Amino acid sequence: MSDQPLTQDELSALAAFDTPTICNALEVVAPERRTQGFTTETMVCPFPDRKPMVGYARTGMIRAMEKPALDKAAMRKGRLDYYRYMADGDVPKIVVLQDLDSKKGFGCYWGEVNTAIHLGLGCDGLVTDGGVRDLDAVAPGFGILCGKVTPSHAWVHPVAFGNEVDIFGMVVRSNDLIHADRHGAVVIPHGVARDVAEAAELCGRREEPILAAARRSDFSIEKLEQALAAADEIH
Description:
The chain is of the alpha/beta class. It has six helices and eleven strands. It is elongated and about 70 Å long.
């Protein structure tokens, strides 16, 4: 596949599936990634009914347990540079922010103000191992998948952006394609991204005979064996 970003129609096709189904599809089109590229810890999804997020990663790192050493002017410049990076590009974007503190979520970067700013800068949502607050006041429609819910800023501040990050085992680089919902998040490799929706549909078709058999009142080992054989014939 080319390095061109996916079209909105292609992104919408991926958003039609939940993240576990996308992981199933990646086992078909990128089997070498079966044990990598996805979050491996339980995460908090404050708005579980929101449709899956699909977009290109804008990465960064924060700290909150210690007061930053920079003066106010340097802090403001650094924060504006961070926001310029987040605003860059006209593709759908997902913020992927790693909390570097030993107590992740000690101080909260995300709430009413930052969700509004990032949504306004073209970011569709957030995946972080840190904290989120202001759940009744976050920007409407902004997707959130976080490590915890927590009340205070503490000394929270961004310390890096555009770099490689690790969110509960999911390693993400800037511009990686991300799929996330209430189950967790996964990186979709660009080389197979346009094949994933079709593979997800295939996975669903293969499950249909098994589920149909399992839900029958006369389900048995014999019928399971027949259903598994039927599933194997679906290509």
